[in-house]
Amino acid sequence: MVAGAFPIAKLLYLGVRQLSRPLAARIKAGARASPFFRAYVCGPPAQLYHWVEMRTKMRIMGFRGATIKPLNEEAAAELGAELLGEAIVFGVGGLCIFLEYARQASNTRRKEEEQSSTLLGLQEQVAELGLAVETLDAQLREVNRLLLDVSTKK
């Protein structure tokens, strides 16, 4: 096994994803404690999520016109903090996937450029060798012509 083949970038991405979970937990705890986060960051998405979820459940059960009561502030803060934490973990995971894709695309592009430059170099060498062959062919014809002239004069 080659030591250089160890996927260090993948290990780093995995580490970042694992670190995002405690970070999300700390942000959730801060969001639960802060009145600003409870009211403006966690509350509205939680209420929207609750509304969509309950509306979907009511429609599945056949209650089309039922009104949905909003969550109380504590439950909305808890649900909003959970949504925020999950969004952070999902965002970090998505960022890791994007960075891995960009790294792979960069490696592929670099390899293609190397192959292209190698191919160009080989084509130039073939063209130079073709010219050298033509030059040698012309010199051989000249030597053969001179030998024929010398042999016909004798």
User: Structural class of the helix and strand makeup?
Assistant: mainly alpha
Helical proportion? over 70%
Low-confidence blocks of residues: none
* CA-CA gap between termini: 73 Å
Number of strands: 0
What coarse outline follows from CA principal-axis ratios? Answer: rod-shaped
Radius of gyration, rounded? 36 Å
Q: Please report which band the strand proportion falls in: under 5%, 5-15%, 15-25%, 25-35%, 35-45% or over 45%.
A: under 5%
Main sheet attributes: strand count, strand direction, barrel closure:
none
In DSSP terms (H or I, runs of 4 or more residues), the helix count works out at 3
Let me know the average pLDDT. Answer: 86
What are the secondary-structure elements, in order, as H or E?
HHH
Which key phrases capture this entry?
single chain; 154 residues; mainly alpha; 3 helices
Explain this structure.
By secondary structure, this protein is mainly α. About 85% of the residues lie in helices and about 0% in strands. The chain has three helices and no strands. It has helices at about 10-35, 35-60, 75-154. α1 (about 10-35) crosses α2 (about 35-60). The radius of gyration is 36 Å and the shape is rod-shaped. The model has no long low-confidence stretch (mean pLDDT about 85).
Q: What's this, in brief?
A:
The chain is mainly alpha-helical and 154 residues long.
